[in-house]
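Field log, afternoon session.

UNIT: design team B
ACTIVITY: writing a sequence onto a fixed backbone
BACKBONE:
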């Protein structure tokens, strides 16, 4: 009973941390609206499906989805991010983030909000504070610190780079690193460096908004996470060929 109450309290606090600054920021945007402004700072939206792909890993019909969407003005936006993996018709991993984003420098946003891990079970809820933007040499960087129930702490760093062979043919290497502050045997994550994911995808933009691609993924678990994976009889590293679509609108 106490655990359930604690989870609800943390979730409410995280939601307030997301909605309060976002509400104040959007109110501030409107309070400075110029009655003579004819749409110079409109409300904009975008949905980006970075990866919708099939993978040739063990098991039937492995699939992956990484997508994000935002709505807002130049300085303040609300973001949704999701990462889903399915295998044998079952969802193995599902993560959703709801974030308020504020520009703090050219090409850089600070983000705060909530992350919810629906899979694997039991579910986990985290508060989020992160930094997303464009680093020197045009690296897209997304890094975040997560704080969860029972003193759980985690961190993530991801980056990708676009190498243009032509205006339509683009090679994208990417890497993601996850670190956890303590063992969580129920979800199979261990303290320290947990996993590294790296990929290389070559896409052809039929239109800027629609691009099929093919590539390769490499995943490896480390430390205590690797030990949890071994106990389940699974491999600690995997290499997959992928084919998919990148779409935005």
């Amino acid at each position: 009973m106490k655990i359930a109450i604690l989870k609800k309290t943390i979730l409410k606090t995280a939601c307030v941390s997301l909605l309060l600054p976002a509400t104040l920021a959007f109110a501030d945007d409107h309070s400075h609206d110029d009655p003579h402004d004819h749409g110079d700072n409109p409300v904009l939206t975008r949905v980006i499906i970075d990866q919708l792909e099939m993978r040739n890993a063990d098991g039937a019909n492995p699939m992956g989805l990484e997508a994000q969407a935002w709505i807002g003005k130049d300085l303040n936006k609300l973001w949704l991010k999701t990462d889903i993996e399915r295998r044998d018709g079952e969802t193995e991993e599902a993560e959703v983030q709801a974030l308020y984003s504020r520009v703090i420098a050219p090409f850089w946003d600070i983000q705060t909000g909530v992350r919810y891990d629906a899979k694997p079970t039991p579910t986990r809820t985290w508060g989020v504070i992160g930094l997303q933007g464009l680093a020197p040499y045009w690296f897209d960087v997304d890094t975040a610190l997560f704080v969860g129930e029972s003193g759980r702490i985690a961190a993530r760093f991801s980056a990708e780079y676009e190498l243009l062979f032509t205006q339509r043919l683009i090679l994208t290497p990417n890497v993601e690193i996850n670190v956890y502050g303590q063992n969580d045997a129920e979800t199979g994550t261990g303290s320290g460096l947990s996993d590294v994911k790296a990929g290389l995808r070559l896409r052809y933009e039929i239109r800027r908004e629609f691009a099929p691609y093919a590539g390769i993924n490499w995943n490896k678990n480390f430390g205590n996470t690797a030990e949890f994976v071994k106990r389940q009889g699974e491999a600690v590293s995997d290499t997959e060929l992928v084919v998919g679509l990148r779409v935005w609108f």
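LOG NOTE: The first strand starts at residue 44 and ends at 55.
NEXT ACTIVITY: expression trials, pending approval
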